Amino acid sequence: MEKTARNSAPQLHVFATVEEVLYGLADLFVALAERATAARGRFSVALSGGGSPKKLYELLASPAYRERVRWEQVYFFFGDERNVPATDPQSNFLMATQALLAPLGIAPTQVFAVHTSLPPAKAAEEYTQTITDFFGEAELRFDLVLLGLGDNSHTASLFPHTAVLHDATVGAREVFVPELDAHRITLTAPLLNLAHAVAFLVYGADKAAAVRHVLRDARDVEEFPAQLIAPSDGELHWFLDEAAAVHLTL
Ligand SMILES: O=C1O[C@H](COP(=O)(O)O)[C@@H](O)[C@H](O)[C@H]1O
């Protein structure tokens, strides 16, 4: 049973169980795909990484959903990527490939990975060009950006107290994350915010404090980078289970 918040700019979709959350977001994916393909003839999606979306990707590739989307019209990008080879277990591309892209038989021409064999700054520069070339004369806006939330309130690879938080450009950037002692490549907040729709997928009690910080605390993007996400002319959805939403008053 979904409880929807009233009069809230972000649309909060809170479900009792993780399974219900996943079905809710999968249904939104189907609806947005239909809308985008009707309007623009294709559906461009920036995928999230980490652990949480794996179950969503597996659901989308399952018999319940695989016939409900015209997958040959879907184009996949990555909201962020770890600076590791595509064969590394940490790779967001590898996770998405195993859970979603390979099971659906998505053609390589529909998948735009970050080339992590390049140095991070170069990989980000090339990815910016890849995105620019994809949209060409069309509006540079993803139809859907999927995002997760770290327990430190990062999203994509917009980590607390990193310079990329203040990057006003539309594109991909490298970021050094001191707490991980590692580089990553991330789309900038201005690019993410151009999307027609953004959907966060967050579940589990360990995310409850971060959800509260991002959605209810005073604005402090240095501490809570996910507060940067506010589509300028698009929908913002948060798909949460009750454990993650426990500190919100709906
Ligand atoms: O590092 C990352 O973390 C966030 C959250 O991931 P989760 O494993 O806690 O679900 C994710 O959205 C991002 O894409 C990923 O690279």
From TrEMBL:
Residues of the Glucosamine/galactosamine-6-phosphate isomerase domain: 19-238
InterPro entries listed in its UniProt record: 6-phosphogluconolactonase_DevB (IPR005900), 6PGL (IPR039104), Glc/Gal-6P_isomerase (IPR006148), NagB/RpiA_transferase-like (IPR037171)
Chemical reaction(s) catalysed: 6-phospho-D-glucono-1,5-lactone + H2O = 6-phospho-D-gluconate + H(+)
Similarity comment: Belongs to the glucosamine/galactosamine-6-phosphate isomerase family. 6-phosphogluconolactonase subfamily.
PANTHER family, alphabetized: 6-PHOSPHOGLUCONOLACTONASE (PTHR11054)
A family per Pfam: Glucosamine_iso
Name of the protein this chain belongs to: 6-phosphogluconolactonase
Matching NCBIfam families: pgl
Organism per entry: Hymenobacter mellowenesis
Protein function: Hydrolysis of 6-phosphogluconolactone to 6-phosphogluconate.
